[in-house]
Design a protein that fits this description.
single chain; alpha/beta; 8-stranded mixed sheet; 8 strands
Length: 318
């Protein structure tokens, strides 16, 4: 199979028939084999009923519905696990991503030997309250990750199947899939300018809070990818520095006291010396960091139920 198109959605009933027809028209015209995987993230409108109706008429559709809203990352993670196409595309269900881009990006992915290609909505049809924070967010992500994409949050992306099978998406990590892929060893990351459509139906499901959670998730990815398999390297280094500083300060305070006694010089109590308390705090911090490192080494960074989701219905899967 050439393509899998994974589409997470939440209350997008109005756009689904048009989106499906658009994708089908483009891919059939190019004579590509494909599957369209709808992941209903707990919609409360008629989205699932419409998907059921589409499935009854079109064999290329597969779908599942979460019992409740888990978030876009959960939907993508489940879609990635089910995708069978050589190229795995992600698209938003709101018609702001153009299916006309799919054949071109599919060709780029394989002819130019990329691991993944990220869309870049160079010209956006969003309000200024969204575009300005997005530019700041993309700038910060480029600086922190070292990956120079213009639009990390573009919903239209394409991956070779092996890439999506090797990463785990959870929390709010869907914005940083290129970062996770890069950390997993997939270095050939491309970018293509894609058309951005103005929203035709409904309203956006993401508020300004994503610009607070996003950077925190990026820090988490960078930390876990770098130290997840060796947390003692992080905690142990900091613990060693703190402990050594505390140890040498303690030695200095004690030696200074002993020298003063040997010369018969009257000196204040050790506990009256501010350096004594600094040394004590450093010793405690160093010990705690060491203990934290040992405990982290003993724990698996992957909780067994991190990506366990309750699914109420499914279509097209055995």
């Amino acid at each position: 199979m050439n393509l899998s198109v994974v589409i997470p959605l939440l209350n997008e009933a109005e756009s689904l028939p048009e989106l499906h027809a658009w994708i089908k028209r483009v891919l059939d015209q190019e004579k590509l084999s494909y599957e369209i995987i709808f992941i209903d993230d707990g919609s409360t409108d008629d989205s699932w009923r419409i998907i059921q109706d589409l499935k009854s008429k079109h064999s290329e559709i597969k779908a599942l519905k979460f019992r409740r809203n888990y978030g876009k990352s959960a939907a993508l993670n489940k879609g990635f696990a089910l995708a069978k196409g050589d190229s795995v595309f992600t698209m938003d269900a709101d018609l702001q991503d153009s299916p006309d881009e799919l054949p071109i990006i599919h060709s780029m992915l394989w002819n130019d030997n990329y691991d993944l290609i990220s869309g870049w909505k160079k010209k956006r049809y969003d309000p200024i309250t969204k575009t300005i924070p997005t530019k700041l967010y993309n700038w910060a992500t480029r600086k922190m990750s070292g990956i120079y994409l213009h639009d990390f949050n573009c919903g239209l992306k394409a991956y070779k199947n092996e890439v999506v099978k090797s990463i785990e998406v959870y929390g709010e990590m869907h914005r940083y899939i290129p970062v996770m892929a890069h950390r997993a060893g997939y270095k050939r990351i491309g970018e293509k300018v894609v058309a951005h459509q103005s929203r035709k139906y409904g309203e956006t499901k993401f508020g300004l809070s994503r610009f607070i959670r996003g950077p925190l998730d990026l820090l988490s990815i960078i930390f876990v990818s770098k130290f997840g398999k060796r947390p003692m390297h992080f905690f142990g280094f900091g613990g060693a520095l703190a402990f050594l500083l505390g140890f040498f300060l303690t030695v200095y305070v004690l030696v200074d006291k002993l020298i003063a006694i040997s010369y018969g010089v009257r000196q204040s109590l050790v506990t009256d010396n501010p350096l004594f308390y600094i040394a004590l705090v450093m010793l405690i911090i160093g010990t705690q960091l060491f203990m934290g490192g040992f405990l982290a080494e003993m724990l698996s960074r992957n909780a067994p139920n991190r990506n366990k989701y309750e699914i109420s219905e499914r279509l097209g899967f055995e």
